[in-house]
From TrEMBL:
Superkingdom of the source species: Bacteria
Boundaries of every SnoaL-like domain copy: 10-111
UniProt xrefs under InterPro entries: NTF2-like_dom_sf, SnoaL-like
Stated name of the protein: Nuclear transport factor 2 family protein
Pfam families with a match to the protein in the record: SnoaL_2 (PF12680)
Lineage, opening ranks: Bacteria, Bacillati, Actinomycetota, Actinomycetes, Streptosporangiales
Organism: Nonomuraea ferruginea
Coiled coil: none
Length: 156
């Protein structure tokens, strides 16, 4: 167990819970990469932090509940719950997320999150879209493209 890396992960999620983007950014290596089922691959601290700032600005009433972390000298894991109201639909979302990390220079250089896309789409988008289409590759691609377009607009 590497207590410094556990503390780093904890500091990141505590900052997310406070919507403190500057504190979140201080946990990331300049060359960080981030991936999840929606924003598949983002490269560099500026781009990754633009995504987090977008999420914090859009997720109405965003609450991050951190459930704990484990880490060694090279990698770590964490579990957290995101609670927010989806701005486009007004629907309440409770998303259970598993995160994986890699470290370099005692900072997070790789941050990858996994969650159940179908379950998320049912909560976020409701019926019929999320329920009927949330599992289809075409629907997932449409959601991803829309999210990336929003990120591009937000970052400019």
């Amino acid at each position: 167990m590497n207590d410094r890396h556990v503390a780093l992960i904890s500091a990141f999620y505590e900052a997310l819970g406070r919507a403190d983007a500057a504190a979140m950014e201080s946990c990331y290596h300049p060359e960080v990469s981030f991936g999840d089922p929606v924003f598949q691959e983002l490269e560099g601290r500026d781009r990754v932090m633009a995504m987090w700032r977008l999420q914090l600005s859009r997720g109405v009433g965003m609450k991050a509940e951190f459930h704990g972390a484990t880490a060694d000298d090279f990698s770590g894991t964490a579990r957290w719950t995101a609670r927010y109201r989806m701005p486009s639909t007004g629907r309440q979302v409770v998303n259970e997320i598993e995160a994986m990390f890699r470290f370099e220079d005692d900072l997070i250089i790789r941050h990858h999150e996994e969650f159940d896309f179908k379950r998320w789409s049912k909560m976020a988008l409701g019926r019929p879209h999320g329920l009927l289409f949330g599992w289809t590759p075409r629907w997932r691609q449409m959601i991803r493209e829309r999210a990336m377009a929003q990120l591009d607009d937000f970052a400019t």
